[in-house]
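If your schedule permits, I should be very grateful for your opinion on a structural question. I have a record of one protein: its chain in single-letter code and its fold written as discrete structure tokens. Would you kindly read the sequence against the tokens and tell me how you understand this chain to fold? Thank you for your consideration; the sequence and its tokens are set out here.


***
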Amino acid sequence: MTPAPAAAGISIEGVTLSYGAEVVLRDISLAVAPGEFFALLGPSGSGKSTLLRLVAGFVRSQAGRVLIGGADVATLPPWKRDVGMVFQNYALWPHLSVAQNVAFGLEERRWPRARIDARVREMLELVGLSAFAARRPGQLSGGQQQRVAIARTLAIEPRVLLLDEPLSNLDAKLRASTGLELKRLQRRLGVTTVFVTHDQQEAMTIADRLAVLDHGVIQQAGTPRELYDAPVNRFVAEFVGSINLYRGRVERADAGLRRLVVADLGAGAIPAGRVDARLADAAGEALIAFRPHAVRRADSAPDGGLCFEAEIAAAEFLGEFVRYELRAGALRVTADLPHARHQGALAAGGRARFAVPPEEIIVLAVD
């Protein structure tokens, strides 16, 4: 295989982009390391696709800089940035064969014919489509079309690969397998890759790191585990995974000014010492949150944790676990309890006690 070009890092510095009075990106600063698989995650209209197109050179900002491999590319057109982009609809030529689609960019660059043919064979072998070289895109599955689009993009030897919702046209099962295949391919090539998605499960499965955007602002950037376990605000907590979230307060205790977290679950005060280091100087209204998988059956509260009694309102069997909807007073709690063959499900209408360990409790500022 032809050696891949050296991966290039991406640096976005203080970027602001507007369309008239509408601000689409607000003071964005972000760094993607060479060879990293990075995801831009957010709801529709958050600015993630615009940010990707900015790196590609299809749009320009009114302020800030974009650097690729340490070089400012603001004045360079897309075809001079050493960037390859795969669009959401793959943008394959329907009248050309798979091989001709992969060769298209090379022919535009006026590569010698023999070199083009060798590169096309190499790329189709890389994505496992050597046997489909003569087919047209319409004769392929969605996953195969995506691989053709990736092969065509990689053929031009980009230092950065940009993917705009690359899996959105696939069904759920194919999306999962294709995502893992895409990650293996990226690892093999070592090319710096940024992909856009609105699917948090997809981003957390594939990406090394990700940034969550909302209304053109980066809310948080980090590894999937960092965003899941330690969200910095309510938006990230609710967008990345399922979560139970309630209003509460942080109080000063009488002895030693020890902080307490109070949630309206009939649970009383929860010692905050093992909950969140950011509470060192906090007091007042707060949001109390915990993931559904943190809830467990209990007769008493874990040391310093949360314990409450609730009615089982509904149960949903999901194979590896059972998702329960619990009623605790006026509040609703989602609990994901592990399933085992020898255990029966909790009966709807019954009551039970539940607990959440203190280290699983997240405290956030009230918006």
